[in-house]
Amino acid sequence: MGNCVTNRTKIQTNLEKPQKLYIHQAFMRHTLTNPESRKQLLLFEDNFIDMFDESPILGQSMYWFLLGLQNNEQKGIEYETMLQISEVFILGKSENEILRLPNRVSLIVLIVSLFGNLNIKDAIKQFASMEITYLQTTKCMQVFINMMLRKQNVNEQPIKSFVDSLFQKVNGNVPILQLIKFFDNYMAQLEEIVEDYYYNKFLGEQKLFRNPQLQHPSHILNQEWIAFMYLSFMHKESNKLELLYSTNVHERNFELLSHLLTECQTSVLFLIQCEEANRKYIFGAYTNFEWKDDAQPNGSKEDCIFQMFPQFKVYKTKNDKFTRSQCTYLNSKHPELKQGIGFGGELAKEFRLFLNQDLLNVQCKNHDKTYEPGELMPLKQAKVSILEIWTIQQIQGTTQFKDLIYQKIDEQIELEEFENPLVHLDEDISSYRSGDHPSLNQSIQQLQEKDSCDWDGQSQNGFEEEIIIRGDGFEEVKKNEQGFEVIPLNEASINKKSTNVQKLEKAPQPQLQEDNQFEEVLIKTSQSMDSSALQMVYNVVSGTFGQVESDDNWNGDNSDWKGNGSTTAKQSRVQLSKDLATITEELKESTNTQY
Question: What is the predicted pLDDT for the residue at 396?
């Protein structure tokens, strides 16, 4: 081990100390798999292939790229070199002038396309003028799919269909910047997928990204096809695909299909396979709008149509107001109008894609007024051999960990102003999971000091507040400032200025305590004020604040609540800031249970 590290140059990066520690631990762990690596504290080609076991192409290409970047007599990769490349994957940028590339995706494309080239530094300088071949593009897409599916052996047919579409009108190679721009515009989620993959390898942080999973067998789909659809048009939160309808299962029943579509409350994926003259064509549509069997044009701007095979192409809606409601059409009830399922077109006619009510015949066009122009299949009409329709379910109750604290604050504390605490990677990740987050606690403490009020309802920030405890476990918080008029509903015709909540006389109700009255008020704003009074509801049971108008437990008046009916007696006036401790505690517990 003697002199193997004495001449290494210290590398300057913007990585924080905990990040460097994780990378160093991962580096040392991988040196243990090889006696020569352990002896010299270097990583060799076999180490990288083991490190990126889901993608041997990436492992091998990464080794040769770093060897050229290192540019010394060593045959192995030093820790300092790993820090340089890790800075780009973790932070998305580099202090090293040589590695100042557009983003993480461009670095992967560069690593794969320069495989075997040891003159890396000169090659990177020519990055803007570089071109990429069909084979190199295929390898890049295979690496991305390996990252998404976390497996080595993938079906190559979807990859070939995608790359064929990129090179369809190109004689020769494609400018590398053109390819990266395409990824940025049409597959923006690739950047986060690369980041998540590298985080998992070197920082030991498992992200929540998962490729949507098939829940039933399919005659058309596989996980590789879903990966391309996820990158191209599916929502980021898409979790799983469930079979809604298939001609192999439900035969060809248009009435049943119409009923299933109108009952569906999720995104829907249509897949149509046609066979003509021993050739197979697969195409379809993706919708996000509620289906209505009314023979009227519907849909949303997030809808799209696409060709899957022999080439993978996506055609999205045109960016103008006219086409946003022309995406979908369904008619099974009006025989005087065209019956079937349509996509695109104009005013419920001249459809870009139309499936007849017999579910046997389909017509296609290459252009319309709704979607981008392009071919779905080379035939104008064909027989449908297979029709599959899938619902796409969304992830429920999960989020990126970095966004969790912000989300909890937004949901539970809707007061005047609150500065969200920043989540820094240099802080111990276990502190977040346990709820012991210093910046969060400090922010809540500041909020307590800002919005505390005394027992008489007088706020320190100039507001008067009244909190009314209901017998079903809810508190109604009424907050107003000088200049607001508070008028009882039964005396709305009397202009009576007050800064105190007036009682509303109503039918006798069971008393929990002598002072525990239910009050109903109408709050108006005087002409001298620009803003309206803040009226909120605090649920004692769930520990959440919410606006009166949007709270699920609020039915529009104090006489009817959808609470738990608790009859526990409570004090009629409490201090608002005092309950923030409860919110803080529940926030900690929620954060802890998520992870």
Answer: 66
